[in-house]
Amino acid sequence: MAGGTTARPHRRTGNGALGWQASAVPQARPHSPKGDGIAVHGPERTTSSGVPPSLQGREVRCATAPATWTWEVPGPPGAPAVLLIHGWMATAALNWSGSLDFLGQSFHTVAPNLRGHGRFGRGAPPFTVEACADDLAELIDALPLDKPIVVGYSMGGAVAQMLARRHRDRIGGIVLCATAASFARRLKLRPVVRVVSKISAAGSRRYPGAAEGLLHWQIARHDRTVGTRGQSPVGNGLSWALTERSKSDLATFIEAGATLNAYDSSSWLPELEVPAAVVITSRDKTVTPWRQEALAALIPRARRYVVDAGHDVVVNSPDLLLPVLVKACRELAQT
Q: Which domains does the chain have, with CATH numbers?
């Protein structure tokens, strides 16, 4: 839509700070192992303290991709699929737990952890945007999902772009939220960041005991930085999701940060032939709005939406984001 869409404040529909809906969610469809080296375990109700009782997850092991934990809401019969990709220093639970029930009213909604993030994260192979895109292509085949609309948030937006580039036939479209084609603030520091990150990641893999303590320091440092940008405390009221994040791999966080610093899709986005929408968070101090606007301008015929909120809207005020996100996904699913 050339003029774009701007979200207005939306009345919360559930309980708690995140607008979590307490209504029951239908049982997920059982899955059977598919093919050699691919196993999709049946739905499990997590017993972690504080997890909403309707939230279900499963372990997924593919032929070559590392094992991952995936949250899922089946949605109405025959509903189109939506694949949610989380951001840096987060997990699917931390990024999307306030969105799953709402999106599940309209879509078969799936939210996996990226490699090295959350449960099953320790000891993951090296992190690159390309590797994550390939992992998700395997996940789509394993579940299976029929051409899902892929929603990428922040770093997840970069992964969604790469998934569309490398595996266009697997997806129905992309919705890019609070993200960009390039993230680096100081281009001259890219070589330094690359070298330092490579050494740091190698050290954390060689000395996992020391990495445990450094992981908590890195998380605390990240969360303090977020606070200086005017955002609410990370995961406020989501202690169970914060606990899951602490199971991540330190080397992955280091490599992901360096990957984002080096990422630049501006040269090939104009050639991307896929239905696309860009959701711009107009008060964002992490991925500035001008970067998001530039992203929208690069993608041919991309639909543009605006949410009057900051980078943390998906966690701390999902009721502002979700009506726009549902609209974007529905419109792409109908193209």
A: 5-333 (3.40.50.1820)
